[in-house]
Amino acid sequence: MEFLNTLNGIVWGWPMLALIALTGLFLTVGLKAYPIRHLKTGFVELWQGRHKQGEGEISGFNALMTSLSATIGTGNIAGVATAVAMGGPGAIFWMWIIALVGMATKYSEAVLAVRFREKNEKGHFVGGPMYYIRNGLGPKFKWLAVAFAFFGMLAGFGIGNGVQANSVADAMSHISPDGTGIPEWVTGLVVATLVGLVLIGGIRRISDVAGKLVPFMAITYVIAGIVLLGIYANEIPAALELIVTHAFTPISAAGGFAGATVWAAIRFGVARGVFSNEAGLGSAPIAHATATTDSPVRQGTIAMLGTFIDTIVICTITGLVIVASGAWQTGASGASLTASAFDAGLPVIGQYIVTLGLAVFAFTTIIGWSFYGERCTEYLFGIKAVPVFRLIWVAAIPIGATQELNVAWLIADTLNAMMALPNLVALILLSPVVFGLTREYLQKGSQKDL
C-alpha cells in the first residue's frame, strides 16, 4: 500500500492533471468548441446511427453503447462518492470542468480511431490509439503505440475488471436489511460465468448486450436520481453553493468528514472524473473504430456524447444526491456512501436501486473493457493470443471481487495514468488531422445547405 500510494501520488500529481486538462482545453479551442456547440447534433447523429452508414462491424449507436458500457460503471456510483469523501463537495465542480473539455478529447479520439483504423487478418475492423499512433505518426513512434497497448492491456484488469468486480461484490455482501448478504466469492464466480458466456460471441455479442442493458439501467438510475432530487429540492441550492464555493476554498471537518484542501478537491475531482468518463485514456476509440460509419467526424460527434452522458448527467445526479442529502458528512465512502444517500430519501428502495445499478453497470463495464483488453493484446501478440486473454480475464474476476477495495482503486488509478500518457501525446501531435477533418466536414455541410 505504501509503494502504491507513493507511485499513485507521482503519476497523478499536478503534471498529469495539468496535461489532461490542458490537452482537452487545447482541443476545445482548436475545434472552436465544436463538441459543445454541436451537442444537439450529436444526439441527432446518435439516433440516425442505429442504422448502417458505411463500413464497419457494429452500428454507430451500438459503438457508443459499447463505449458507455465500459464507461458507465462504478465510477458513476462509487467513484463520485469517493471523490466527495476525499475532496469534499468541491470535487464535483472539477469533475464538471474536466468533462466539458473532455468532450473535445473524446471527440478527437474517435475521429482519429476511424480515420486510421485498419482490418485484421480475419477481416474485422480494428483501431484505437495504438493504430492512430502507428499509422498517423509513423514508424518513429511505434514504441509509443506499443507502450499504450501494454498499459492498456494491464489497465483493463484494474479499471475494467478488479475495481468493478470488487465494488459489486462489496455491495452484494451488504444487500440484506441486517447488513449481511451474498458472500463476495459467490458474486465473483457468478459474474465471471456471465461474462464468459458473453465473451464467446465477440464484439457483436458485447455490443448487443450493451445496446440493451446500458440504456435501460442508465434511464432507470437517472429517473431514481431525479425523484430523489425532487425530495431534496429545498437542499439543492445550498448543495450547489457548497460545490462551487469549495472548488476554490478549503472545507473544514464536519461530522465524519475529515475536511479537504482545494488541491484535494481538484485532484480527486479530476482523477475520478477521468476514471468515470475515460476521456483521454484512449479506451473508447477502440470501440468507435468498429462503427459502421462513412465519416470520422460523424462518429466523433456521437462519441463525445459519452462524456456528456456519463459525467454531466449521471455523475452530477449522484453527486447532488450525496451532497443534498447530507450523507457526505457521515464518513462513509465508495458505493456505501451513495447507497446511504439514496436510502435516506427512498428508504429500503434506494439501497436496492444503487446495488442493482452497481451490479449492472459493473457487469457491462467488465464486458466492455474485455474488448479493449483484447484489442491491446491482439496488437502486441497477434490474434491467436485473444482466447488466452479471455481466459485470464474471466479468471481475474473472482480474484478482484475478494481483494481489499483500497488496493483495487489504487492499482486502477495508477494504471490509468500510465495508459493515458501515450494517448495524450498522440492527440496533441495529431491534432492538425482532427482540426482539418472537422473543417472539411463542416464545409461540405455548408455547401449542401446552399
Entry keywords:
450 residues; mainly alpha; two-stranded antiparallel ribbon; 76% helix; 1% strand; globular
Give the topology.
Elements (H helix, E strand, L loop, with lengths): L1 H10 L2 H17 L3 H4 L1 H10 L11 H12 L2 H14 L2 H26 L2 E2 L5 E2 L2 H9 L4 H31 L11 H16 L2 H30 L4 H10 L16 H16 L6 H5 L7 H8 L1 H21 L8 H12 L3 H33 L4 H16 L3 H25 L1 H19 L1
Antiparallel strand pairs: 1-2
Helix pairs in contact: 1-20, 2-7, 2-20, 4-15, 5-11, 5-18, 6-13, 6-16, 6-17, 7-8, 7-12, 7-13, 7-15, 7-16, 8-9, 8-20, 9-10, 9-18, 9-19, 9-20, 10-18, 10-19, 11-16, 11-18, 16-17, 17-18, 18-19
Spans where pLDDT lies below 50 across 5 or more residues: none
Q: Main beta sheet: strand number and arrangement?
A: 2 strands, antiparallel
Structure annotation, total helices? 21
Q: Which shape, going by the Cα principal axes? A: globular
- Percentage of helical residues? over 70%
Order of strands in the sheet with most strands: 1-2
Overall radius of gyration: 21 Å
The percentage of residues in β strands lies in under 5%
Which structural class do the helices and strands define?
mainly alpha
State mean pLDDT (0 to 100 scale).
85
Topology as H/E string? HHHHHHHEEHHHHHHHHHHHHHH
- What is the number of beta strands? 2
Distance between the termini: 62 Å
